[in-house]
Amino acid sequence: xxxxxxxxxxxxxxxxxxxxxxxxxxxxxxxxxxxxxxxxxxxxxxxxxxxxxxxxxxxxxxxxxxxxxxxxxxxxxxxxxxxxxxxxxxxxxxxxxxxxxxxxxxxxxxxxxxxxxxxxxxxxxxxxxxxxxxxxxxxxxxxxxxxxxxxxxxxxxxxxxxxxxxxxxxxxxxx
Length: 175
Hints:
Blueprint: H1 6-15, E1 19-22, H2 23-34, H3 37-40, E2 49-54, E3 65-66, E4 69-70, E5 78-83, E6 93-99, E7 104-107, E8 110-113, H4 115-124, H5 129-146, H6 149-155, H7 164-174
Parallel strand pairs: 2-6
Antiparallel strand pairs: 1-2, 3-4, 4-5, 5-6, 7-8
Helix pairs in contact: 2-4, 2-5, 4-5
Protein backbone atom coordinates (compact mmCIF):
# COMPACT_ATOMS: atom_id res chain seq x y z
CA UNK A 1 0.00 0.00 0.00
CA UNK A 2 1.12 3.56 -0.69
CA UNK A 3 0.77 4.77 2.88
CA UNK A 4 1.44 3.36 6.32
CA UNK A 5 -1.66 3.50 8.51
CA UNK A 6 0.01 2.30 11.71
CA UNK A 7 0.47 5.87 12.97
CA UNK A 8 -3.10 6.71 11.96
CA UNK A 9 -4.37 3.78 14.06
CA UNK A 10 -2.29 4.84 17.06
CA UNK A 11 -3.46 8.47 16.93
CA UNK A 12 -7.04 7.36 16.21
CA UNK A 13 -7.02 5.37 19.44
CA UNK A 14 -6.91 8.76 21.23
CA UNK A 15 -9.40 10.68 19.05
CA UNK A 16 -11.69 8.01 17.57
CA UNK A 17 -13.63 8.90 14.45
CA UNK A 18 -12.83 12.60 14.97
CA UNK A 19 -9.39 12.17 13.36
CA UNK A 20 -8.60 13.08 9.73
CA UNK A 21 -5.49 12.96 7.54
CA UNK A 22 -4.65 16.19 5.73
CA UNK A 23 -1.64 17.71 3.96
CA UNK A 24 0.67 15.93 1.58
CA UNK A 25 -0.20 12.43 2.82
CA UNK A 26 -3.89 13.11 2.15
CA UNK A 27 -2.98 14.41 -1.30
CA UNK A 28 -0.99 11.26 -2.07
CA UNK A 29 -3.88 9.06 -0.86
CA UNK A 30 -6.35 10.95 -3.08
CA UNK A 31 -4.09 10.76 -6.15
CA UNK A 32 -3.34 7.07 -5.55
CA UNK A 33 -7.04 6.22 -5.15
CA UNK A 34 -7.90 8.13 -8.32
CA UNK A 35 -5.13 6.34 -10.23
CA UNK A 36 -3.36 9.58 -11.15
CA UNK A 37 0.17 8.16 -11.22
CA UNK A 38 1.36 10.98 -13.47
CA UNK A 39 0.47 13.51 -10.75
CA UNK A 40 1.90 11.33 -7.98
CA UNK A 41 5.26 11.31 -9.75
CA UNK A 42 5.48 15.12 -9.50
CA UNK A 43 5.33 15.09 -5.69
CA UNK A 44 8.17 14.73 -3.22
CA UNK A 45 7.80 12.26 -0.35
CA UNK A 46 6.10 13.70 2.75
CA UNK A 47 8.46 14.46 5.62
CA UNK A 48 5.69 14.33 8.23
CA UNK A 49 2.02 13.53 8.52
CA UNK A 50 -0.66 16.09 9.33
CA UNK A 51 -3.80 15.26 11.27
CA UNK A 52 -6.91 17.28 12.01
CA UNK A 53 -9.22 16.42 14.86
CA UNK A 54 -12.60 17.89 15.61
CA UNK A 55 -13.47 19.26 18.99
CA UNK A 56 -14.80 22.27 20.83
CA UNK A 57 -13.55 25.61 19.50
CA UNK A 58 -11.65 26.37 22.72
CA UNK A 59 -10.22 22.88 23.17
CA UNK A 60 -6.45 22.42 23.33
CA UNK A 61 -4.44 19.26 22.89
CA UNK A 62 -3.25 18.37 26.38
CA UNK A 63 -1.90 14.96 25.41
CA UNK A 64 1.86 14.80 25.85
CA UNK A 65 2.54 11.30 24.44
CA UNK A 66 1.04 9.24 21.64
CA UNK A 67 2.85 5.96 21.04
CA UNK A 68 6.57 6.72 20.45
CA UNK A 69 5.83 10.42 19.90
CA UNK A 70 6.00 13.20 22.48
CA UNK A 71 4.70 16.76 22.48
CA UNK A 72 7.47 18.80 24.14
CA UNK A 73 5.47 22.05 24.25
CA UNK A 74 2.57 23.58 26.16
CA UNK A 75 -0.98 22.65 25.10
CA UNK A 76 -2.28 24.48 22.02
CA UNK A 77 -4.91 23.89 19.34
CA UNK A 78 -2.08 22.88 17.00
CA UNK A 79 0.87 20.83 18.24
CA UNK A 80 3.79 18.90 16.75
CA UNK A 81 4.67 15.49 18.15
CA UNK A 82 8.27 14.33 17.77
CA UNK A 83 9.40 10.70 17.64
CA UNK A 84 11.73 9.82 20.51
CA UNK A 85 13.46 7.04 18.57
CA UNK A 86 13.32 7.66 14.82
CA UNK A 87 14.24 4.03 14.04
CA UNK A 88 10.81 3.00 15.35
CA UNK A 89 8.76 5.64 13.52
CA UNK A 90 7.35 5.96 10.00
CA UNK A 91 7.68 9.75 10.28
CA UNK A 92 9.98 11.82 12.51
CA UNK A 93 7.11 14.17 13.42
CA UNK A 94 3.40 14.60 13.02
CA UNK A 95 1.22 17.65 13.42
CA UNK A 96 -2.14 17.60 15.15
CA UNK A 97 -4.55 20.52 14.76
CA UNK A 98 -7.97 20.99 16.36
CA UNK A 99 -10.68 22.32 14.04
CA UNK A 100 -14.44 22.73 14.60
CA UNK A 101 -15.41 20.51 11.63
CA UNK A 102 -13.94 18.73 8.61
CA UNK A 103 -15.46 17.87 5.25
CA UNK A 104 -13.98 14.47 4.62
CA UNK A 105 -14.08 11.28 2.61
CA UNK A 106 -13.09 7.76 3.62
CA UNK A 107 -10.32 5.93 1.78
CA UNK A 108 -9.70 2.32 2.83
CA UNK A 109 -11.33 3.00 6.19
CA UNK A 110 -9.24 6.11 6.85
CA UNK A 111 -10.79 9.56 7.26
CA UNK A 112 -9.17 11.92 4.75
CA UNK A 113 -9.92 15.59 4.17
CA UNK A 114 -12.02 16.27 1.06
CA UNK A 115 -9.88 17.41 -1.93
CA UNK A 116 -11.63 20.77 -2.23
CA UNK A 117 -11.17 21.46 1.49
CA UNK A 118 -7.53 20.42 1.21
CA UNK A 119 -7.05 22.95 -1.58
CA UNK A 120 -8.46 25.70 0.67
CA UNK A 121 -6.02 24.72 3.43
CA UNK A 122 -3.11 24.83 0.99
CA UNK A 123 -4.17 28.22 -0.34
CA UNK A 124 -4.29 29.59 3.21
CA UNK A 125 -0.70 28.40 3.85
CA UNK A 126 2.59 30.02 2.99
CA UNK A 127 3.48 28.90 -0.52
CA UNK A 128 6.90 27.31 -0.96
CA UNK A 129 8.05 25.18 -3.89
CA UNK A 130 6.73 21.88 -2.47
CA UNK A 131 3.40 23.49 -1.63
CA UNK A 132 3.16 25.02 -5.11
CA UNK A 133 3.71 21.61 -6.72
CA UNK A 134 1.11 20.05 -4.38
CA UNK A 135 -1.42 22.79 -5.19
CA UNK A 136 -0.94 22.34 -8.93
CA UNK A 137 -1.32 18.54 -8.67
CA UNK A 138 -4.40 18.93 -6.49
CA UNK A 139 -6.03 21.47 -8.84
CA UNK A 140 -5.46 19.14 -11.78
CA UNK A 141 -6.82 16.16 -9.82
CA UNK A 142 -9.97 18.08 -8.83
CA UNK A 143 -10.50 19.11 -12.45
CA UNK A 144 -10.20 15.47 -13.59
CA UNK A 145 -12.41 14.10 -10.82
CA UNK A 146 -15.12 16.65 -11.63
CA UNK A 147 -15.32 15.11 -15.12
CA UNK A 148 -15.66 11.54 -13.81
CA UNK A 149 -19.00 10.79 -12.11
CA UNK A 150 -17.81 7.59 -10.44
CA UNK A 151 -14.67 9.17 -9.02
CA UNK A 152 -16.49 12.29 -7.88
CA UNK A 153 -18.91 10.11 -5.91
CA UNK A 154 -15.95 8.49 -4.12
CA UNK A 155 -13.59 11.43 -3.73
CA UNK A 156 -15.76 14.47 -3.04
CA UNK A 157 -17.49 15.17 0.24
CA UNK A 158 -21.22 14.49 0.15
CA UNK A 159 -23.39 15.83 2.98
CA UNK A 160 -25.55 13.20 4.58
CA UNK A 161 -29.09 13.31 3.27
CA UNK A 162 -31.87 13.79 5.79
CA UNK A 163 -35.12 12.15 4.78
CA UNK A 164 -38.54 13.67 5.43
CA UNK A 165 -39.59 10.68 7.53
CA UNK A 166 -36.74 11.54 9.95
CA UNK A 167 -38.35 14.93 10.55
CA UNK A 168 -41.70 13.25 11.27
CA UNK A 169 -40.32 11.21 14.13
CA UNK A 170 -38.45 14.25 15.39
CA UNK A 171 -41.61 16.39 15.46
CA UNK A 172 -43.54 13.63 17.26
CA UNK A 173 -40.79 13.45 19.86
CA UNK A 174 -40.86 17.22 20.39
CA UNK A 175 -44.64 17.60 20.79
